[in-house]
Model the fold of this input.
Amino acid sequence: MKPVKHTLVALIASALLLVLWQVGAWLLDSQILLPGLAPVFRTLLSIVAKGPFLVDISETVGRAFQSFLIIVALGSILGVLGGNYPLFSAAMRPFVTTLKAVPVMSIILLAFIWFTSGQVPLFSAFLMGFPVMYVQVESGWRSIDTNLIQMCDLYQIDGKDRLIHFTIPSLVPSLVTGARISLSMVWKVIIAAEVLTVPRHGVGSRMQLAQVQLQTDRVLSWTLVAILLTAAGDLLFELLVLAGARAKRAVDRRRAG
Amino acid sequence: MRFEEVSKAYGETVVFDRFSLAVKERTILSVVGPSGGGKTTLLHLASGLIEADSGQVVKEESERGAVSYLFQEPRLIPTSTVFANVELALRSSEACAKVRAQIVEHYLTMVGLWEDRFLYPAQLSGGMRQRVAIARSFAHPSSLMLLDEPFQSLDIKLRYSLMDAFLKLWRERAKTTLFVTHDPKEAIALGDAVCCLSDPTKPLLYQTIDTPREERGIDDGRLLALEAQLIKALLGS
Done:
């Protein structure tokens, strides 16, 4: 009953958001300031129907996916090193603290000086997402239960067995949390970087071009596309986590005969 | 197993000072004592987790090799099933998965948990978790058993039922066992001998129990007298 109730509340809240948008559009009565729902959805359909739409989407998704993978891989490896070696953690601290404090826009602008417009989103998203992943994995490693480590030592659970059955499962919650937070950051930074650097293709580039021409309906349409992409990415991630947990349970069950 | 003139200090705190104690091969020695009396240090010395500053721990041929340790808490891997928690403790000694599965089945059946082998620790009650830990400690092919107050946090009924489960498995394959507890009753119910720790130089009391375990009643006069002696030793310390 509870999930149904929650879904219902979420649906009502979403509908309320749309109503507020429509009421705002009526009150302002300006296509430039805030176009109504109908024109925006018409524009959205016309954008989707055109060929370049898929190219724009795939470019943005590709950048997000690449930077997400690099963040997860590097954040995990360096996070484990940081968790295990206090000296390494001390050496990483200034980088992580700086990256956490630097405004997104500074990173994007600097990256634009150093790289081509296609690489800027990738680089900026990495710099923004990496500290989150790193900090999560590092603290996850540090909070591995020392009592269980002692148990593994005494019961000679070593090497591959310890890694697969104890170490990695102990890290999974922090890996998932780190990946989840960095994924939602990645979308925002990728699109912001695309807006500023306007690469040939990308959701952010389309937004920027529409804004320059004061096509608010197009800006809003691309914003809706960005929201849907983020939601689809989050959903896919949660489904992967769920499938992973289910697969583990199935393997556990088979092993227990 | 013998602790021969063992000394151990943590900074200024001397836990053992030329301390000697013997545990007869394939018997259970119950060790009672106040907190900070050196009970856990004794277990750590026996397991090799820590080294003595001086003196030595001498083990008989049958006591050398792997150690099984029953902790105060069950210390099960939360993401592994009941089956896997026991089976993992066998991997270092048994390469064949089929044989491992048979051993796990035997011990889980003995503690009454074979039907629950698919469950995870979070799905078990406190008593069931400690049963899994007991099964694991016996499945692990060890030559020495160390028990660090494993029944302490449980209610009296559960405590005795777990002690029964433990003894059932122990009788099947007796190993030299050091059983550390706060509770004199528990110490007398399980031990072939009891001793009280508190003085860093020697055990305050060392007494063998001749009454067979199955004949030890809670109203046995001699055992009650021993319990009183243990309590006095504890209070005196």
